[in-house]
Amino acid sequence: MVDPGLKNLVHEALRGVLGTMCLSSPGLVIGSAAAKVKIANTVPFAIDAVLYSKTTAEIAFTDLTVQQASTYCKYLLSVDAEGNGTITNGTPAATSALALIPDCPDDECSFGYVELAVAAEYSFTPATTELSATGITDVYTNLLFHNGY
Fold first, then answer.
1. Regarding predicted confidence, which is higher, 19 or 141?
2. Which residue in 71, 74, 94, 112 has the fewest CB atoms around it within 10 Å?
C-alpha cells in the first residue's frame, strides 16, 4: 500500500514542475524606464495546470537592496494568476556560477531572469540605477520553468 502522504507529495511536486510553466518566450529587455525590466511579448503561462496570459508590461524592482561592486546577481521574474509581475532578488556572489537563481514565490510562474554583473567601483541600486548604466552588464534569460537550483 502506498503512503497517501508520499503520493500527495509526488503529485504536488509533479504538478509544480509540469503544471507551472511559461509557454513562450517573454522577450525580456530593458524597459522604457531603464530601471525596469520589460516583457516584450504576450506570454501564455500555466500555474497548477490552469492557463493564463500576461500582456507586455514593465516590472519594477521592489527589493531595493544594493548590489555591491565586483559582484554578480540573478533576479528572477515571475507572474501570479492575476498578472502581477514580481522581481525576486538573488544573493550577490563573486562569480556568475556562484550567483544562483532565487526561488520562485509561491503560486507564481517564473519566466526568466536578469543577471547583473557590477564592475569594480560601481554599485547597482534596484529601481534607481539604470540597467544600461556604466559599470553594469545585464544579461536576460528566458525560462520555461524554474524549480529552484
1. 141
2. 94
